[in-house]
Known about the structure:
Chain A is an alpha+beta fold. Helices cover 32% and strands 19% of the residues of chain A.
Amino acid sequence: xxxxxxxxxxxxxxxxxxxxxxRPALVCFIKEDCPTCRLVLPVLAAxxxxxxxxxxxxIIGQTSSGNSQLMSEFNPPFNLLDDSALKVAFTxxxxxxxxxxxxxxxxxxxxxxSGFVREEWQEMVAELLEPHPSATCTVEWDSxxxxxxxxxxxxxxxxxxxxxxxxxxxxxxxxxRIEMGSQDDEFEFMFDQGFTDGLPVIPPTPQRVLRMxxxxxxxPQKVIATMPPNMAxxxxxxxxxxxxxxxxRPEYLPVVMAAVDAVCTDEFNIHGVMATTMGAxxxxxxxxxxxxxxxxxxxxxxxxxxxxxxxxxxxxxxxVIRNVGGAKPGGTERSTFSNPMKFTMCFAEWEExxxxxxxxxxxxxxxxxxxxxxxxxxxxxxxILDETTTEAPVVAAASGEATKGMFNANWYASSxxxxxxxxxxxxxxxxxxxxxxxxxxxxxxxxxxxxxxxIQGPSASPEQLASLAQLxxxxxxxxxxxxxxxxxxxxxxxxxxxxxxxHGWIPRSMGSIPVSRKIDDYM
Amino acid sequence: xxxxxxxxxNEEVPVARQITPRPEAIVGKVALVDIAKRRSDEFLDRLxxxxxxxxxxxxxxxxxxxxxxxxxxxxxxxxIKKINDFVVIGLAx
Lengths: 523, 93
């Protein structure tokens, strides 16, 4: 036997009514703009006239203004209860109005009817009257239609349902709720609380967060990472809140979570990346089928503004780092200049336009896997331009030459970089039959300086001079500690013979190592 | 009608730590921790020389972080705390 959950509602006279009372009850959910509810209201009034001394009546409307309208129009012998918060309707799974219940004095449901079926209502009234032979009910049943469907309850209207679900006791949301003052502007409030990166954020209401959580099947309370400097447990829910703020769609959420997991590894070392004066930040590269599902930009303007997925996925990761991890400029984030990548930097590789294996395949994944890779980069993208040559070795040499001054013309053998090769430059390499590994080798080769050049360099430090003094002066040293520290992907528009060059940070376990995660694991 | 928002932070207020009371005199063991920045060792060498001259009663222990870019490993932190009465963490460049 089902039970109507106990409730307290105020009636149209301002009096609080508690359900269940001490007697059996008739409970009916109605709303003002439902023709069938208007049809049954006089019937309910007639039942009340006959049985008010035997039964408690709880006639529940769904808007305050609708209740006032019905009271003045019908002048029923009972006051309507105000469930404009819709919580009683939601808790009792009311989908259709009118929905009438007869209950015993404990709230157990004896009879339940939806909409209006004349025979059913007639039968229900007859049963109600049976124990009370002296009572009569003056309903003119013949004047009523034999059947009328009900209307949808406001509690299942999409306008309200998400809010009600979010506010329900069994809501998956556990985050602290912050009640704003009615005079507060929510956007200004988010700035005042220090929750933003300096740009406005979408206010993370429970409804929006619940909608965001639809983007994953993971438990909202699952901890996906521990993030410094707060050493905070990052739950799916907390990522979802920040993803809402960043402007993500629910389907982006798994990418953000995968990236959060990636940066919170000892290999990636997000603490060091955020703390360095060099201004490093995670650059996210997305590979695999998800690029198309999310309509990510991998072509014209891929590294800049204009695409929602690119912009908001990168921003969501940064907001998690700021709000959950606690890395804020002036706190543990100590970048001298910082850079715009600290707002967002996320793009997809144009795998289909590349002559090489996709980046994630190089890193050991299947081509059909959707993967996000995070790389710590301190500057970029800067342009390496070569519009005139069609010779692959020349373009490769131009790329290597361009790296020589990165950080400092004497900073050698200890950094990494990311080269985003445009389709046109990739065409040159394709025609020249230059593989990705050959290009790495050529870049490293073209970046080389002799020990003699480094000794005579403008800013050779005493300790570097001491170290170089141990080597033959004609020994040639590459810019990067290893060719493997030159990462290469393809993106950008069809037009433009150029390569985008990101300056890295400190490679290997001393600093940060790129980390990839399969996005499917977070769906 | 007021708006409800969800807290985007980790909801933990960090513990406010007081600076340990300073003793009248430096006695016992002092840890000098090289954070692995360039010339951190050089800086600590000079400091050690000065301390040995001015505080002959203290014993100095030297430690080395694997890399300046990451927090010191937990075991290293525990060892420093267990053995020493004072810590100087050296920065350089």
